[in-house]
Predict the 3D structure of the following.
Amino acid sequence: MSPHVDMTIDSVAHVKQPTDGKSAAFDKSALVLYVSMHQVFRIWFVPFHRSPVSLVTVLRLVRDRQTNRYYIQQQQDLYQPDECAKFFSVLRLAWLAAVVWQFVATGLCVLGAVVGGPVSWVEENAVGGNGEKSVRE
């Protein structure tokens, strides 16, 4: 979309657990590196539009045994839904709708747990549950 993409890589270290809140993980047996990063997209035909987004990039690596270096074989960028909404919405209305929907969905989950909790308790304790002994016994 844009001829120039600003990118900041938060972390790619895998030796120690980062203490600064940034994250990366390396699966040495599968040669997969997970990198946390930020990008700023600019759409060339919309003046002054910037979309700062955070993402996790999955890098599948191959190892050259002669030089003992790793090379990127495949890259997959994973965006959260609200980050995608930032990218596609010029006025950030889609991002706001995604955030509001996340709060509504969370509220519905909490309501379902509150309403369904007593029903589960009755099924497990009064009716007999699934026939297995309870952990409390």
